[in-house]
Design brief:
This protein is an alpha/beta fold and 260 residues long. It is built from eleven helices and ten strands. The protein has helices at residues 30-45, 68-71, 76-94, 111-118, 145-153, 155-164, 170-176, 188-200, 204-216, 222-235, 239-249, and strands spanning 6-11, 14-19, 51-56, 61-63, 99-104, 107-109, 121-124, 129-131, 168-169, 181-182. Bound molecules: coenzyme A.
């Protein structure tokens, strides 16, 4: 299969999926999201693949979020559809029968942080930065960040990150349990591969059932996932969203109106 925005390579038993938009800090446009979903599907269908790694090209970014220039003029309906699309792709990663590890080699912001959180494990290089900066843009996370961040770091810290839009270091993400290990960037793929190779020696049905059952734990939260799609879409009809995205594209700070 030919991909435009990602590369997919088999390294031994490991499928390495690399987002290839380094000049846009690997921002995730619709096409890139779809391609990541297709690659994970391919990995699951290929008996030679024991696990997958998702990473970003270049040394600066894993993915700096959804592509703001793509969605800045979206309608409410287009925003809702984008969010539903992202949720679908990320759910398919979370529910993959074969392990998927995020090798976070730099910025993991917004949709990039959400992509890492949809993976089963996260390894990060010391320069990585994690955050949900959507409030800076007058929008909310749209790829399940309001849900998975709480699951991984707890309500208190999740709210701090969501409300301030602040990014945290790899070290702090590790301390919070958002990241499993911090390793030098040059060793990131090797370390992720070693974990996959270890898992590959275990019973594959057992491994896939562990993934399935851990995901079951989260089922009661499904209505909130769906509500996020709806609320994300609604933000596209607000003046707040127009100001936030325009400010980003004009490289200035947004000026928001207070709530009544
Ligand atoms: N969507 C679209 N383009 C993006 C992007 C995104 N999420 N993140 C970065 N880019 C683009 C920039 O517009 C810039 O493009 P240009 O060279 O054509 O102007 C290029 O990637 C490099 O980014 P730049 O901002 O110049 O790099 P930096 O090192 O100064 O800053 C960040 C890095 C990550 C702090 C900054 O790019 C940023 O804040 N990005 C947006 C993060 C975000 O809000 N994500 C959530 C989206 S919902």
């Amino acid at each position: 299969m030919n991909f435009e925005n990602i590369s997919v390579e088999l390294h031994g038993k490991v499928l390495v999926i690399t987002i290839q938009r380094p000049d846009k800090l690997n921002a995730l446009n619709k096409q890139t999201l779809a391609e990541i979903g297709q690659a994970v599907k391919l990995g699951n269908a290929n008996a030679d693949v024991y696990g997958m790694i998702i990473t970003g090209s270049g040394e600066k970014a894993f993915a700096a979020g959804a592509d703001i220039s793509e969605f800045a003029n979206y309608s409410i309906q287009e925003g809702t559809e984008l969010s539903a699309h992202g949720h679908g792709v990320y759910n398919s990663i979370e529910q993959s029968k074969k392990v998927v590890i995020a090798a976070v080699n730099g910025f993991a912001l917004g949709g990039g942080c959400e992509l890492a959180m949809a993976c089963h494990l996260r390894l990060a290089s010391p320069n990585a930065k994690f955050g949900q900066p959507e409030v800076n843009l007058g929008v909310i996370p749209g790829y399940a960040g309001t849900q998975r961040l709480v699951q991984l770091v707890g309500k208190g810290k999740a709210l701090e990150l969501l409300l301030t839009g602040d990014a945290i270091s790899a070290e702090e993400a590790h301390r919070l349990g958002l990241v499993n290990h911090v390793v030098e960037q040059s060793e990131l793929i090797e370390k992720c591969s070693a974990i996959i190779e270890k898992i590959a020696t275990k019973g594959p049905i057992s491994v896939s059932k562990c993934i399935e059952l851990v995901n079951k734990h989260l089922e009661p939260s499904q209505p909130a996932f769906l509500q996020e799609i709806e609320e994300f879409g609604k933000m596209f009809g607000t003046e707040e969203f127009r100001e936030g995205t325009t400010a980003f594209l004009e490289k200035r700070k947004a000026s928001f109106k207070p709530l009544n």
